Amino acid sequence: MLQTRQGGPGFLGMATQVSAWELIEETYAAQEGQRPGILIIDPQAISRHVIRGMLHQRGYRLLEASTVAEAREALERDGVDLVIADLALPETSGLDFCRQIKADRRTYLIPVVLITSVQGASMHVAGLEAGADEFLVRPLNTSVVRTRVAALLRHKADVDSLEEAEPILFVLAQAIEQRDEAISGHCKRLDQITRALGTALNLSRAQLLALHRGAYLHDIGKVGVPDSILFKPGPLSPQEWDIMRQHPITGEAICRPVKSLALVLPIIRSHHERWNGTGYPDGLAGEDIPLLARILQIADIYDALTSPRPYKRAVPGPRALEILAQEAQRGWREPRLVGAFREVWETTLWPAQLTALAHVQPAAATSAPPDIVPVTVLK
Ligand SMILES: [Fe+2]
Fold it and tell me: Among positive and negative, which fits the CA dihedral 328, 333, 335, 339?
């Protein structure tokens, strides 16, 4: 497998041919001491030896297992990047073992190559249906094995680098939150509120995970908003609003390259839309606003209302609920969702909040609302 790359040795800017293996070497070379680990699983020592012979010149960490139990230990312990397994394993079939790898959250991204001596399309299809990334039939061709292994490792390295980007974005999001002392703990509280509401709405695990991530990442685009606007205590000018309204778009652009955040992008993009279409940045209305964005928005407003800001006191929970109901009457929020939030608030959130306040600041739960409450507290 050859790929074209600009700027090879010899002639500045001239395209050169680079093998998949060379790209893999570059990727892993950046990770000190981390050569790609390949686990060869076969009960026959001679078969493991043959594959080892095909790959040893490449500098991989070649690991061997003769049983599924040994293979599981290696997967737990040795940082495996690719599995090559014979279909005929002693304890279980290679197909079942492949299914187990692909069903485990810790190993499902590891490419699996299945090898068999049995010819026939039906076996090939069964292997791919079990989740195998490649299916090879003996006698093995050395060039084919090397090329397929290099291509699969390259893909694994790409996936790994994308997965690594997600924690970096979380750190960035928390740094943005810490920029503003007034919203300290906001994301963590949003996480708790959206989880309670999402669970009550019987959302899937994937949707709940997206809400968890959205709680921390929804305002990441504020990295592009100047402090003079972000921390301005008074109303924003029309020009300043134009800049503030860009933060959902900026946030979506920051997170878009990370594939694992695909379900989070609509939350980031649409968390300032309004049910009647008067929100931003796209003026979406009704159910055109993604459900997860609507859920996060309700939690965002509730927490903003019940938290102190430099320009306002914290509003007690019952008063915040009244304001949310008023916003639903104005057409800004989805009435059904506000109703669902009220139920969750009454049964779960408010009792927990009262308990917490009883330990920290007993008066806050019953303090009178301020004379003037902003109609909306979110920028
Ligand atoms: Fe926002």
Answer: negative
